[in-house]
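Project standup — Tuesday

K.O.: blocked on the structure for the chain from last sprint. Re-posting the sequence here as requested.
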Amino acid sequence: MAASSKREQTHERIVDAAARALRRQGFAGVGVADVMKQAGLTHGGFYAHFASRDALLLEAVERAAAQSAAATAERIAARTAQGMSPMQAVIDSYLSDEHLMATEEGCIVGALGSEMARQEEILLQASRAKVQRLIEHVAKALPEGAPAGQAVALAGALVGTLQVARTMGRDDKGRELLRQARESLIAQYAAA
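H.V.: unblocked you, prediction finished:
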């Protein structure tokens, strides 16, 4: 495989910076000048890589989702290797202290869920796809034959709990809220 060109490497740096900024600051908080600065570039080079800010945001949503999916898969695999059921591993991983702290690397839906519905159509479609992917991921972890609505309910509970915990703080209050919700959801869905 040939090494990627300098232009491709630069493009990747910009998208990575935008993906981090998106999860940290939300859609409105991603400014072209700030992203370019974070990527170590000048603002003037932006349009050599993207037709618009929305084009950058679209790639950033995709990148952030791919990064968080890979990290989540690793955490879930580690937990199932320790003997947790897939459902317990999903809950334990999503509502972990690590995920609470991972504002720049965590789940894009957990970071932006309340903002997604207010975006322009192209970003809204991408956001809907990420929400659907999260629901499908949760559905795979549930026991066979679980009602379809259970995956939606659990995905919503995970996202909402993470958002509330982050609002309460990335300290003892937030961690305690996660612990309580984790235990409650595992008990509820283990009994289902």
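K.O.: great, moving the ticket to review. The mean pLDDT is 91. Residues 4 and 138 are 35 Å apart (CA to CA).
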